[in-house]
UniProtKB/TrEMBL annotation:
Signal peptide: none annotated. GO terms for molecular function: 16S rRNA (guanine(966)-N(2))-methyltransferase activity; nucleic acid binding. Residues 188-208 are annotated as: Disordered. It comes from Arthrobacter zhangbolii. NCBIfam families: 16S rRNA (guanine(966)-N(2))-methyltransferase RsmD. Keywords: Methyltransferase, Transferase. This is 16S rRNA (Guanine(966)-N(2))-methyltransferase RsmD.
Amino acid sequence: MSRIIAGAAGGTTLYSVPGDGTRPTTDRVKEALFSRLESYDILQDARVLDLFAGSGALGVESASRGARSVDLVELADKAAATCRSNADLVSKVLGHSRVNVHRAKAETYLMRVPADVRWDLVFIDPPYALTEGELDAVLTPLAGHLAEGAVVVLERSTRSPEPVWPAGLERFSEKKYGETTLWFAEPAQGADADADADAEAEARPEQA
């Protein structure tokens, strides 16, 4: 059983995906992750993208904590249906809809989204069996859809190597939780980056 941890819909019990086709983020990892994101002060009014969303638990948690909008992207029929159920559930608690569900492959969705769409926070929780090449096919188009100061959170097996970050993305932190490793990345500062933004850029705080 999964619940929303905190925020306006805190304590709400979420629907789970029937069967064994998904790997939900554990409550321990989710709690630690959102504690870190709260320290970054990135959740309030954020535009959030949840790729390989599963039940949509990370996305709806973000909505509960003040995200402006959430896009859940999931291809599997049962998981996408569960995303819709959880989106409706949270919308009823909040009194308005902030969560949109897209049944699509992650890379296809990113290739088709309008060029001017930008997200502040992105969750990527693919099956551990996803190859590095398949992961690159997601990260590469994503890099062009990140707002200034955005955070990308990628969940992988601890046995997997560090992802090969495409141009436009760079890692700034990682944290291991048993069999799970969370990789944190942000938009890379390119040669054409605004000079004032470069001068004001600061390293994000590390947490235990």
